[in-house]
């Protein structure tokens, strides 16, 4: 199998990337109205976006495709700060290493998503690096009352447990994704 990305593959990466990002943004926006749900957004995004990711990796089983998706995510995360973009790109590289010899392996696809799901934690690193600026931006978007509640719920180290929460969401999402895509996996010879 030719593992180089062709124009057709890049178009598919763009389509799936847009789907993933739109669903992620809708989820975060919906959850963002309540501070505690905003904090748990990586968990819910992982559950909801797993099927899109799994279908994407099956449709474009080429080295570099997931890394391109992580770069698209990094562009979206630029508004949250440089740390979120660097995190997204780093996670994309790690995910590619997991998939290097396993785009057709169900187990590797599952593991790769659990890792990739942590890209959504990147914006929360703003709390670690500069919490006062982060909270001020929240005040600008959501108001002082919301920001005060979020401030109380977010210690400086919040991003680290969120990585675990995103992985747990990824595991749940993969379970749902495998059920939804079971027929596709069988047809593709993945299981």
Helix content: over 70%
Weakly predicted, low-confidence segments: none
Strand proportion: under 5%
Number of domains: 1
How far the N terminus sits from the C terminus, by CA atoms, comes to: 18 Å
What is the number of beta strands? 0
Structure write-up:
The structure is a single chain. The protein has 191 residues and is mainly α. It has one domain (7-188). Helix content is 78%, strand content 0%. It is built from nine helices and no strands. The radius of gyration is 17 Å and the shape is elongated. 39% of the residues are buried. The mean pLDDT is 91.
Write the layout of secondary structure elements.
Blueprint: H1 7-31, H2 35-39, H3 41-59, H4 65-77, H5 82-99, H6 106-116, H7 125-142, H8 144-153, H9 159-188
Helix pairs in contact: 1-3, 1-4, 3-6, 3-9, 4-5, 5-6, 6-9, 7-8
Short overview:
By secondary structure, the protein is mostly helical. It is 78% helix and 0% strand. The mean pLDDT is 91.
Main traits of this protein?
single chain, 191 residues, mainly alpha, 78% helix
């Amino acid at each position: 199998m030719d593992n180089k990305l062709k124009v057709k593959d890049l178009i598919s990466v763009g389509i799936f990337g847009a789907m993933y990002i739109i669903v992620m943004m809708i989820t975060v926006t919906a959850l963002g109205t309540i501070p505690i749900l905003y904090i748990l957004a990586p968990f819910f995004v992982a559950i909801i976006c797993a099927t899109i990711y799994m279908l994407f990796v099956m449709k474009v089983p080429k080295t570099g495709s997931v890394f391109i998706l992580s770069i698209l995510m990094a562009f979206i995360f630029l508004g949250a700060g440089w740390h979120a973009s660097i995190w997204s790109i780093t996670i994309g590289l790690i995910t590619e290493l997991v998939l290097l010899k396993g785009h057709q392996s169900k187990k590797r696809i599952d593991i790769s998503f659990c890792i990739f799901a942590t890209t959504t934690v990147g914006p929360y690193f703003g709390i670690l690096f500069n919490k006062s600026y982060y909270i001020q931006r929240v005040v600008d978007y959501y108001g002082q009352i919301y920001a005060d509640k979020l401030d109380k719920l977010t210690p400086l180290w919040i991003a680290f447990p969120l990585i675990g929460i995103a992985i747990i969401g990824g595991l749940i999402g993969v379970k749902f994704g495998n059920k939804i895509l079971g027929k596709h996996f069988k047809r593709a010879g993945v299981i």
